[in-house]
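Quick one, T. Sequence first:
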Amino acid sequence: MDITEILDRIKRLEFHQKLLLQLIKDSSYPFYEYILRQTLSEEEVSRIMKTCERLSKEFQKQKAEGFVHFHPLYKDFCESLAPRLEAEEIMEALRRQGLYVALMTELEKYKLN
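Structure tokens:
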């Protein structure tokens, strides 16, 4: 396979990705749509999910201990993301897709602070 064929395949994949984004728009997979729109790598998504898992456990622990303010968790979440990513968009997409709902619902309260 020569470079021209590879470039043609890449262009075709980019076109197909745009079509897929149109198909899933307004679907029940807003986080997947965000991944595609931002062209996140598997490693970036894995980091987001590991952060969410860690923070979700910490949220449950703090909640059980009687904590009522979770701004440090929000700050931790935001700082764990690559600078080009928008925390608010990710939180909303995760919550709407049904992922880490309790954590995302709580963290969204702090986005204006």
